[in-house]
Write a structure and sequence with these properties.
The complex is a heterodimer of chains A (269) and B (330). With 269 residues, chain A is of the alpha/beta class. Chain A is built from ten helices and eleven strands. Classes of the chains: A alpha/beta (269), B mainly alpha (330). Chains A and B meet through helix 2 and helix 3 of A and helix 10 and helix 11 of B.
Amino acid sequence: MMTQSPSSGTQTPPELAIQTRDLNLWYGTFQALFDVNLNIKKGIITSLIGPSGCGKSTFLRSVDRINERLGYVRIKGSIEVYNQNVYAPSVELAQLRKQVGMVFQRPNPLPISIRENILFGYRIHNEKGGRIAKSEAEGIVEDALRQVLLWDQMKDRLDNKATVGLSLEEMQKLCIARLLPVKPTILLMDEPCSALDPKGTAAVEELIWELRGRYSILIVTHNMAQARRASEECIFMLMGRVVEHSPTEKLFVTPVHQETADYIEGRYG
Amino acid sequence: MDATLHDGGRTPSPPDNGPPLREYRGKQAIASMSIDARDKNWYIDKGFEILMFFCGISAIVFVVGIFLFVFKEGMGFILHDMNMGEFFLSPKWRPTSLNNPTYGILAMVAGTAAVTILAMAICLPFSIGAAIYIAEFATGKTRETLKILIEFLAAIPSVVWGFIALSIMNPFIIETFDVPMGLGVLNSALILALMAAPIVTSLAEDAFKAVPDTYREAAEALGATRWQTIYKVVLPAAKNGLLSAGLLGVGRGFGETMAILMASGHSINIPTSVFDSFRALTATIAAELGETAVGSPHFQSLFAIGIFLFFITFLINMTADFIVRGVHKG
C-alpha cells in the first residue's frame, strides 16, 4: 500500500533537506565514513539501509552532531541542512537540534511526566526561560499527542512518569511526539522500530508514514521490508561508502550495483 | 576409542556446574569408572565455601556482639539511674557532682546537631559541585587525578584534622572574625565539612554515574545545553542518590569524635552563635570513659549515650539505604 514511487516530475529540481559534500568521519583513527555525497530531498521519507557497521547510524548521528558527545570524532567535508553547513563555527547546537529532531533505537523518554516530556524541548527553546501559560501548555501537549495518535490513550495520565507503565510502542511514539512542539523540519530516526514487537512496528511505521510531507524524514533501518514499504527513496551504504541512492521502488526492483542486489537478496548482511 | 565416544553420547550430560562437555568426553575413560569422584579439589572447594560463609556472617556476629555489649552496660543506667526527661531535656551534664549528679545530654545533642547541619551546609554544595564536574565534565587524566586526590583527603587521620583545627583554623578564626576564641561550632563545622567531603563526593558521583546516558543523549538531542541537561534531567534523576549521600555525610558528622573533640572547645553549653564552644556526644564518651569507675552510674551513662548514638546512626544509614533502594525500584 505504501509503494507508490516518489513524484518523478523533473521540471524543477526538488529542494534539498540535507546535502553532504565529501563527508569523511573518523572515530579516533578508525575511518567510518568515506566521501559521502548525498542529496536528501525535502518532505519525503528516505531510508538508509546496509549491513551492520556500514556507517548508516554514524551518518545519521552526524547530521544533528549528536556524535560529538563521544569526544573523539573527527570530520572532514560538510553537511548542509537547508544550505547551512552544520559544522560551520557559527552554528549553535541548540538551534541545529531544534531544527533536526532525533528518534533513537531504544525509546528514551526522560524520567519526568508525560506532559513534561512533551514540553521539555519547547521549554528549552522558549525565550521566556521555560515559563509557559497553562492553557498554552495544554494545547501543545494535546496537539503533539494527537499527531502521534496517542492522545486518547494518554489524556488521562499526562502526569504519570513516562518511564514506567508505558509499552515500548507508546514510549517510542512519545519520543516522536516530544520533537514536534519545537517544530523541527527534519526527523532523524535510528532504527526506531527495532525494539518493538510486530504490532508496535506496524503502528510506528504508520505514524511515520502519516508524518511525511510535513517533515523530511531520514530513517535508518535494518529491516529491508520496512525500508521497502515505508520509504520513498532509499540509500544503500556499505563499508562507510554510499553505494546507491535511488527511489525505493527502483533500488529494490532494478538495483544498479551488484553489491546492492546481493544485499537486498540477502546474500550477506 | 570408538566405543568410548559412543558411550559418551549415551551417558547423561553432567549437571550445570560440571566440566564443559568437551573436557568431559576427554576424561571419559577415567570418569566412567566413578562419576561421583570426590577428589581433592572437591574438598578444597567445599572447605573454601564453608570458610567464606563464616567470613560472610562474621560481620553480623560482630555487630550483634557490639550492640549487646554496649546495651548490657547501658541498660544498668537506663533501668536504675536514668530519668528519661532529664536525660533528653536537661542541658546539665554533671555526672561527677557528689550531692546531685545530673545526666542531661540536651546541650551535647544540640551542639552535635548544630555542627552537623552547618557542616553539611558547607560540604554539600562543594561536594555535589565536585561530583558534577568529575562525573559530567572531566575526562581522562583530569578525572583520574581528581578522584585520587579526593580519596587522599579521606585517608587523612582524624587527629590530624584536629591538629589543623587547633593550630591553623583557631588563630585564623580569631583574627578574621575578631572573637576571643576560635574553637567552637564554626571551626568544627569547617573541619567536619572537609572530612565528610570525600565520601559525599564519591557517593554523589556514583549517583550521577547511575543516571543512564540515554537520558543525557535524549536531552541533548532535543537541544538542551550541558547545564540544562544536568539541571533538568541528571540532577532530578540522581536526587535519591544525592539525598542518601547527604545523609551518610550527616551520619559521619554525628559519629566523628577526635577531630571534633579538638575543634569544639569541649565546654557544655547550648551554642547560640557559630563561635560558641560546645561539646559533642562522641567527644564526651571519648574524654570521660577513661576517668570513671567501671560499673558506676557515670560509666554506664556514657554507654547510654553510646546506645543513643547507635540508634541515630542506625536510623540515618537505614534511611539512606532505603532511599537508594527506592531508586532501583524506579
